[in-house]
């Protein structure tokens, strides 16, 4: 089997480390330099698809639906949201690392079908937390996949998003009857309780990393 080859690097703001993009034939992998394992792989995106599908199906019939994807990654959540939503929708994707956007506009784009080229897509470079704070009542759905879940791995600053203050900001950024969807590599009962204390009605869904029904079990919280 061919080996992965390094084709790009991108520094993580505020972290002092970098992301690495590797390619093996038509397969891509994103990893943190010096860390074991990988963050993402183009062959394992079932749960990223489900994050968007579960959230956007709830609001897809709203005229002019506006949704936020927190974390571009490999573009699969963005692509899945666009597939569900109507032609008058707007999907804002917030990405902290400019290099990740460049990868998705370049060699990585074809894996998810070039969702950044869709006219309904808007890219916001920077911290998704800052965007939430300035977009009160701005979104029908918010999908967060910015780290490994409530236990952040890539940036300590990501912890704020999953804190009571961060969740309150997300709640304030939702329009009436909006939905917050949060991806995680695993279950976290304490986070479920944190969402409830903020005032959300919470549903927890277990999804597989790979479809159909294969791969690791990931968790998605749907909070409304």
Textual characterization of the structure:
The chain has 224 residues and is α/β, with parallel strands linked by helices. It contains six helices and eleven strands. It has helices spanning 46-56, 76-84, 98-105, 128-134, 164-173, 189-198; strands at 5-11, 18-24, 27-32, 40-41, 66-70, 90-95, 121-125, 139-144, 174-184, 202-210, 214-223. The protein has a seven-stranded mixed β-sheet with strand order 7-6-5-8-9-11-10. It has a four-stranded antiparallel β-sheet with strand order 1-2-3-4, with helices on one face. Helix 5 (164-173) packs across helix 6 (189-198). It is globular and about 50 Å long. The N and C termini lie far apart (46 Å). The relative contact order is 0.15.
């Amino acid at each position: 089997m061919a080996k992965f080859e390094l084709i790009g690097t991108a520094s993580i703001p505020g972290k002092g480390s970098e992301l690495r993009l590797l390619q093996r034939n038509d397969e891509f992998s994103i990893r943190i330099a010096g860390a074991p394992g990988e963050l993402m792989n183009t062959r394992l995106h079932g749960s990223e698809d489900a994050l968007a599908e579960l959230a956007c199906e709830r609001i897809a019939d709203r005229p002019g639906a506006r949704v936020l994807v927190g974390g571009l990654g490999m573009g699969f959540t963005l692509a899945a949201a666009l597939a569900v939503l109507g032609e008058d929708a707007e999907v804002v994707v917030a990405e902290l690392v400019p290099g990740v956007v460049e990868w998705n506009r370049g060699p990585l784009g074809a894996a998810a079908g070039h969702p950044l080229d869709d006219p309904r897509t808007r890219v916001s470079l920077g911290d998704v937390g800052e965007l939430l704070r300035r977009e009160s009542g701005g979104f029908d759905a918010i999908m967060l996949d910015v780290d490994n879940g409530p236990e952040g791995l890539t940036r300590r600053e990501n912890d704020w998003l999953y804190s009571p203050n961060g969740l309150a900001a997300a709640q304030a950024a939702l329009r009436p009857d909006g939905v917050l969807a949060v991806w995680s590599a695993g279950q976290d009962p304490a986070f479920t309780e944190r969402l409830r204390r903020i005032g959300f009605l919470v549903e927890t869904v277990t999804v597989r990393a790979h479809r159909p029904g294969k791969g690791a079990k990931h968790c998605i919280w749907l909070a409304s």
